[in-house]
Amino acid sequence: MRASPAAFAAPATVMSALVLVACGGPYPGATLGQQVQSWVRATGFTAAVGSLEADAARVRQVSPGDAGGLRTVCDVLVTDALSANQNLPSPDTRLTTILTDAYRAAAAAGNGCLRAAGAASGVPSRVAADLAVARSGYIKAQARVDLLALEGGGRR
């Protein structure tokens, strides 16, 4: 009886994953700090966070009653948060957790302001709170990246 090609696919996938784990992951570097720095460069982490910060600023600047403008900036915020989330996981579990929470809060803020786009009152307080949680996460993530660079000999 011949084994089907699918019978070989699962073991090959498992072996590939084990090789990546044994080598420290897909990002080059001997230390976790170096791997995180490689991840930062490869994913455009700094630019992604900068875009999310700019999106949040635009959400806060839209005039109350400008439903179309608010829908546009809120949609961009959601799209950018989901796009940034696609770069996870990072080589560091703690950094990944921080960023997952921050990106989730940014997407929640974007979705919240999309729901409120027709209201004349502007951005709801829940959206502002989610934006603050996201911003706090970006700051913590950058601090974690900096700490790992110092501890692991990585360069920025």
Model description:
The structure is a single chain. This protein is mainly alpha-helical and about 160 residues long. The protein has one domain (about 30-150): Four Helix Bundle (Hemerythrin (Met), subunit A), CATH 1.20.120. About 75% of the residues lie in helices and about 0% in strands. The chain is built from 6 helices and no strands. The longest helix is centred in the C-terminal third of the chain and has 28 residues, at about 125-150. It starts with a helix and ends with a helix. Mean pLDDT is about 85; it is low at about 5-25.
Could you give a quick summary of the protein structure above?
This protein is an all-alpha fold and 156 residues long. The chain has a single domain, classed as Four Helix Bundle (Hemerythrin (Met), subunit A) (Up-down Bundle), CATH 1.20.120.
Mean pLDDT: 84
- What is the CATH class designation? Mainly Alpha
Uncertain residue ranges:
7-23
- First and last CA, distance: 56 Å
Give the number of domains.
1
Look up the CATH topology.
Four Helix Bundle (Hemerythrin (Met), subunit A)
Structural class computed from helices and strand pairing: mainly alpha
What series of H and E elements makes up the topology? HHHHHH
Radius of gyration (CA) equals 20 Å
The helix count comes to 6
Count of extended strands: 0
Largest sheet: none
General form: elongated
CATH architecture classification: Up-down Bundle
Strand content: under 5%
Helix content: over 70%
